[in-house]
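I am hoping you can look over what I have pasted underneath with an eye to the fold:
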Amino acid sequence: MALLWLSLAWLPPTGLGRAPLTQLSTPVLGSKAFEGRGGVGWGTYRPTEIYNGGDPSGMVIHIAWADWGKRRAIGYGLANVFKPDGGYFPRPLRSELQAFDLGHCTARGPSAYERLDVREPSRPGGPLGRWLGWSGGLNLCHPVGA
């Protein structure tokens, strides 16, 4: 009996210095390294807001995700959209996101969606346009500009 107690005493306490198994097995959106100055949502599980930290077109708010954890997750949110004659429409417009390319941004990190596409209408109430790679299709694991 004493031998069993000694062997268990050498096991690390649960929850100290380790993320729960559920967090390790669920994907995040890219990596915190992708965030620009003031960025939000990168490297997190099912972010409800993402922002590159640049101009307003790099932000999507109120995101609701479907199929998170599957090969391709679809998100619906509101984004600032450029007007054809310059500037932005006065209110954010609906947008659709698709996170895909599951992998790992770091060897010991959680699984992560490494790519993100977005589509939005060209005017309020208009149909959604074609899919475009977020930030020109950059890998979401690496800092913008790297």
